[in-house]
């Protein structure tokens, strides 16, 4: 469900990125309380067309949190262009309550973030909350940006260094700029991480790895970690940008000629036909426009639902952890029926 929130502040972070802060009225404070690492979906309607995008919350989770997101301009991005060029203080934007499972509830231990570009946004919230709330936690941030000028939240990260010199470690790699600190420039890819990580950390002593950014970086980091023997359960991922060609959808298996989806949403259920080729989300949306979604690309996880019965085929999944898939959760936007009847529960 979307709530209209007023824009309280817009701060320019770089030439192509802003931080937008929303005013949360007292009646919605509980709704908008977030766990560090979560995102919110924003909605805008242009010429009758709805545009939805998810953006990660960059602020720490406190008792009275500030709802602030980082938005970077994406080429031809319908929402980011609007956010950077048109949005002004006092405007109202439809905002969905925080969601997402790329989270870290503060606990003692040693954690690492590997981020690229705007992937810093949720990890900044994670690291800031963790270090403030848990005196026995340490965080190492390995970030990759094109240049210093294009780096989002430079000051906030520098502030963490000043505040927690013993417990916060920063490695900043710039792909298009030489650094004076001795760190070579260049991309943070699988090969480089495979060499860098063991030199920097005792990889088997890390309690959680948080990878966030473009598909290529996250995939490279995951492969490097797996090659270093890091268990899959210690790796958490959030992908920000994905080219359509980056991960080919699973080829269509034999689909039933006619199928129906039964969906429960806000305690109300209905059964509807699924048209040829459409996703379960599309079938549900035709009848229940309040069904949750944002990216429709298998990335944000907003459309997560529990598969009560039947079988489905998922095109791609960059949002659900393997334990969620094992527990029976699916992404409705990527799911197609593999049996004549499929039942989803969006409330679980
Ligand atoms: S709507 Fe984003 S994963 Fe389905």
Automatic annotation (TrEMBL):
Its EC number is 1.14.13.149. InterPro entries: 2Fe-2S_ferredoxin-like_sf, 2Fe-2S_ferredoxin-type, 2Fe2S_fd_BS, Beta-grasp_dom_sf, Cbr1-like_FAD-bd_dom, FAD-bd_FR_type, FNR_nucleotide-bd, MRET. GO terms for molecular function: phenylacetyl-CoA 1,2-epoxidase activity. Its cofactor is FAD. Keywords: 2Fe-2S, FAD, Flavoprotein, Iron, Iron-sulfur, Metal-binding, Oxidoreductase. PROSITE patterns: 2FE2S_FER_1, 2FE2S_FER_2, FAD_FR. Residues 1-105 form the FAD-binding FR-type domain. Residues 259-348 form the 2Fe-2S ferredoxin-type domain. Pfam families: FAD_binding_6 (PF00970), Fer2 (PF00111), NAD_binding_1 (PF00175). SUPFAM superfamilies: 2Fe-2S ferredoxin-like (SSF54292), Ferredoxin reductase-like, C-terminal NADP-linked domain (SSF52343), Riboflavin synthase domain-like (SSF63380). This is Phenylacetate-CoA oxygenase/reductase subunit PaaK.
